[in-house]
Amino acid sequence: MNASTLDAPRTPQRRKGSNFEKWGWLYMRVSGVLLIVLIFGHLFVNLMVGEGINAIDFGFVAGKLADPFWQWWDVLMLWLGFIHGANGMRTIVNDYVLNTKVRAALVWIIGIVAALMIVLGTLVVFTFDPCIGVTESSALWAQCQA
């Protein structure tokens, strides 16, 4: 093949090893479907069940975060959402940032920020204690004494 010959359009380029872009593309589709189920389930329970939106207050959130089912529901939503968003931002950066060093720096920043937010969010969900800092003058005093 000489320099003036081009491959036919859509000729598959075979590379050895894992195809990160393919897995990223597949992740976006699967996580998108799961996020739709998780988000609409979250909205339905919070806005439609029981007293609806009128029931949402600190006690409602504290009650949900005390239940392991809802902890894992929220953590799964958090993880999928942040990774989905970070992967989307990575794709945008790869498409539009031409300078390779700037692109690499931005992709690293996106990954670090997403990882940090996932860790912090997970810690909040699993270590949430509504009784920290409650005093006798607080409205939560009676519930925290039980």
Features:
SQR/QFR_C/D; 3 helical TM bundles of succinate and fumarate reductases; iron; mainly alpha; 0% strand; metal-binding; 146 residues
Backbone shape: elongated
Structural class: mainly alpha
Number of domains: 1
Let me know the average pLDDT: 87
Give helix and strand order, one letter per element, not per position. Answer: HHHHH
Q: Any guess at the CATH architecture?
A: Up-down Bundle
Helix count, per DSSP?
5
Could you state the CATH homologous superfamily? Answer: Fumarate reductase/succinate dehydrogenase, transmembrane subunit
Give the low-pLDDT segments: none
Radius of gyration equals 23 Å
CATH topology: 3 helical TM bundles of succinate and fumarate reductases
Number of strands: 0
Draw up the topology in text.
Elements: H1 20-47, H2 58-65, H3 68-96, H4 100-127, H5 141-145
Helix pairs in contact: 1-3, 3-4
Structure characterization notes:
This protein is mainly alpha-helical. It is elongated. The longest helix has 29 residues, at 68-96. It has one domain: Fumarate reductase/succinate dehydrogenase, transmembrane subunit (3 helical TM bundles of succinate and fumarate reductases). It has five helices and no strands.
